[in-house]
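Project outcomes to date are best conveyed with an example. Our students and postdoctoral researchers have been running inverse folding experiments weekly, and each run begins with a structure described purely in tokens. The record below, which covers 313 residues, was selected by the lab manager from last quarter's runs and is presented without edits.
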């Protein structure tokens, strides 16, 4: 992969940028439909908590409706943990991957949701990739925003059967991807240390080649768009954010903001900023180490108000 690409523009994701790039805001007399409907597909028998974290984050980011699709073995557990959601149980393989029979349940939702997040808590990369590739044409046809996280990003490594042999996979419509350096190494074959040392060129090259908004997470997070625009967020919260479930929360925030109508690049930049600032707030109150991923989402509504998320009248 060519990694000598330079950004066409570089922007700092700071308070000034966010103030000048306000999120879509529902009218005072609007209802939950106007705030957007998000579908989150994920979870497994060993990691049902990941989809709960992501789903909670999507609602905390302001989405109005939530549907969760998870393994039938844990669907009741998830439903009890998320009383705000409609929960659909999907058929599973012994490997914890979802059967393609899940399409019978998911396909009718394509026209009724505004954003879809796939990946939190999923375990079988090949089976997950097959499901992603089966869903994407339907989601592309309806213009639904798509966020791929964790195992679902493996769709890049497992292209559909009709994809030309030897050709890197490219999404027909842009999606958002949220890899950390280890996941990026898995997706590209580039060494993790090299990615940490020089994240920008690889993020830009991948965004262009994959046709994706790529948020390469780290202490300095870079967000690259397919057109070569690069955003950077310095000091992503604190070391306390490096905890199990933190990435699920970030992906949920992206999906929630996208469901509200934010374009994927905007939703991703705002999500990175909100996630980092939530970590700062928790560190001030609880200490740098030891706060939990589940607590991050609680800070998001207040931060949305503080950062001026409401568009001018």
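After processing, the design step wrote out the following sequence:
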């Amino acid at each position: 992969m060519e990694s000598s690409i330079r950004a066409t523009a570089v922007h700092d994701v700071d308070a000034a940028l966010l103030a000048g790039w306000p999120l879509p805001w529902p009218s005072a007399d609007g209802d939950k439909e106007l705030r957007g409907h998000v579908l989150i597909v994920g979870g497994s028998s060993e990691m049902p908590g990941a989809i709960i974290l992501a789903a909670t984050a999507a609602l905390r980011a302001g989405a109005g409706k939530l549907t969760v699709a998870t393994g039938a073995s844990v669907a009741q557990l998830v439903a009890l943990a998320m009383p705000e959601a409609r929960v659909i149980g999907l058929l599973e393989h012994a490997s914890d991957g979802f059967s393609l029979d899940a399409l019978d349940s998911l396909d009718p939702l394509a026209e009724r949701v505004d954003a879809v997040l796939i990946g939190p808590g999923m375990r079988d990369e090949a089976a997950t990739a097959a499901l992603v590739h089966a869903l994407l044409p339907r989601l592309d046809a309806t213009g639904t925003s798509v966020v791929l996280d964790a195992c679902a990003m493996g769709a890049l490594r497992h292209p559909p059967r009709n994809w030309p042999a030897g050709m890197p996979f490219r999404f027909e419509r842009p999606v958002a991807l949220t890899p950390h350096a280890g996941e990026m190494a898995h997706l590209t074959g580039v060494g993790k240390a090299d990615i940490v040392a020089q994240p920008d060129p690889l993020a830009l090259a991948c965004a262009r080649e994959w046709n994706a908004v790529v948020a390469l997470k780290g202490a300095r997070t870079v967000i690259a768009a397919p057109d070569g625009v690069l955003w950077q967020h310095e000091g992503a919260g604190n070391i306390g954010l490096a905890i199990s479930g933190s990435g699920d929360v970030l992906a949920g925030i992206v999906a929630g903001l996208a469901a509200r109508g934010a374009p994927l690049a905007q939703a991703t930049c705002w999500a990175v900023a909100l996630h980092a600032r939530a970590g700062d707030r928790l560190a001030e109150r609880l200490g740098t180490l030891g706060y939990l991923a589940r607590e991050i989402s609680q800070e998001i509504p207040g931060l949305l108000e503080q950062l001026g998320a409401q568009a001018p009248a």
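The chain is about 40% helix and 15% strand. The radius of gyration is 18 Å. The training component of this project remains on track.
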